[in-house]
Amino acid sequence: MKDETTTTRVDGDLEANQGPRSFGQVMPVDDVRANDDGNSEVSVKQGPMSNSRWYLKLLDAGVEENGIRPVPPEERTQTEYNELFTVFFTCLLCVLPLFFGMIPLLLNAGTVTGFTLIGSIVSGQAIAAVNEGAHISVNVGIGIADVGPATVKSVIGYGSLMAGYFMTFGGTASDFTAYHSPNGSNLKVFTYVYLGLLTPSTPLLILGAAIGGALPNVDSWQTAWDSYGIGGVLAEMLKPAGGFGKFVLVILALSVVGNMVLSNYSVALCLQMLLPIFAKVPRFVFIIVTMAIMIPMAIYAAAEWATSLENFLSLIGYWAGCFDAVVIEELVVFRKMDYTTFDPRIWNKWRSLPPGFAAIGASLVSLALVIPSMDTTWYTGPIGKHIGDLGFESAFVVTALAYYPLRSLEIKWSGRV
């Protein structure tokens, strides 16, 4: 049977072609064309996938059908805002923060040389001599003296890594509130999300710092770290517990699933926004493709996993600085905290949306200071060499400064916010 195609004029009424749909009714975008007035004509085609049994079974199993289409207000009925706490709490209640807690000591390990080394020996000897009855060896004394020495450079570098760890949620947090009622308290939403991020991370970061401090003083832990990274250290720590320790280790290993679920959820949305044709592709397809690419990349990066993660998060932190500066300034300065200025009815009308030149331009301008301020294993700029990695701070400040004049010119040129 020939597929039936209907064409709907999107002329500002979101509900005209975006309204609630009955179960099993799939309306993928077949074609998107912009008219002279900036409106779009969307051809909605009932293709083979909409009638396929396996696809309907996926929907029945709970697979979300909606993609980048803005959710109409009448469909945003969830009022259980405490779910946001659970979402982010489970995302970060995993082994990942343990490694981040260890990073300050690991980064600092390469800088403790020369007089610091001599000072450690002398301090260790002094600690060992304090109480001979305690049987504290010089080696243990050196370990006590060495735990925690931090340079300005390592502290600044760790700050950039933490920015890459936390602030990237600024670009994805709204993905998980799409079905919540917009009439709820802003403070309540912020509190649940903030506590969801902070509560699991803080104790795990502290625990990671404790493990990192003890690492040089426990030979078996150091050997495990050299062979298997943080997983090896955890296995060695749980070894005295026998079979139960192995069970706990498996649970810890699987704890990252919650983190991966949130990431893949947002990745699918991001990929659908790249090109209009991608809106036709079901989101779960993007997740499968992403996993297929990620697994071999993870296997390759595992050989130098600590370095790979550190470099990746540094770069993510630079991007987060640019992104967050633009989002905050756009909302606070140009839109006066008025969320109604974000009109969901023009989401697919590129002629009615901001061109984006100001955001791109401001981000590019920031590179003039970001690059000299970098301090990574593969490149160190002149500023980063002496002070530490200031890439995130540079990206945020310079982007914010450059965005105001560029955005003002863009508004004047385009005639719209």
From TrEMBL:
One of its GO terms (molecular function) is transmembrane transporter activity. Residues 1-46 are annotated as: Disordered. Belongs to the purine-cytosine permease (2.A.39) family. It is found in: Membrane. It comes from Cylindrodendrum hubeiense. GO terms for cellular component: plasma membrane. It comes from the Eukaryota. This is Purine-cytosine permease. Residues 1-12 have a biased composition (Basic and acidic residues). InterPro entries: Pur-cyt_permease, Pur-cyt_permease_Fcy2/21/22. The chain crosses the membrane at residues 84-107, 155-177, 189-211, 247-271, 283-303, 315-334, 355-374, 386-406.
